[in-house]
Task: inverse folding
């Protein structure tokens, strides 16, 4: 599999469930770029994008479960970042539902989603990981 959006070990936030889902997300991003570039059918690409979007929603729910359970003080702004991103992805899917999408567009959108995810992990998720490791998980 090509590393369109490489996973680097320093992205880990040291919370097993979250790290597992992050790695899985990157695997899906790369798999989707490969499938698109290999000229896989548009319907299967669209189905994969929808699956990926649902995975993202479930993943955000996992992080928010940790935040709620451990009373993370920055929950509101972290959740807002999740909600804004979800809305953007949902809009893209709805807008392109019945349209023919080019491979270039799919790859560029996936790379954009991957960039956002990487930046989000390095910022907000790292901070959450530190909180969970130093404050919450020790209690
Ligand atoms: Fe997050």
Result:
């Amino acid at each position: 599999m090509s590393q369109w959006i490489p996973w680097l070990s320093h992205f880990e936030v040291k919370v097993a469930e979250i790290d597992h889902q992050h790695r899985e997300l990157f695997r899906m991003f790369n798999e989707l770029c490969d499938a698109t570039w290999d000229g896989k059918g548009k319907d299967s690409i669209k189905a994969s994008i929808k699956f990926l979007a649902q995975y993202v929603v479930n993943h955000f729910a996992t992080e928010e479960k940790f935040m709620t359970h451990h009373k993370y003080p920055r929950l509101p702004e972290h959740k807002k970042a999740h909600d804004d991103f979800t809305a953007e992805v949902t809009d893209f899917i709805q807008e392109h539902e019945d349209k023919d999408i080019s491979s270039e567009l799919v790859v560029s959108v996936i790379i954009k989603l991957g960039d956002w995810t990487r930046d989000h992990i390095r910022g907000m998720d790292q901070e959450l990981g530190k909180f969970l490791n130093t404050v919450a998980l020790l209690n």
User: Anything to note?
Assistant: The mean pLDDT is 92. DSSP finds four helices and no strands in the chain.
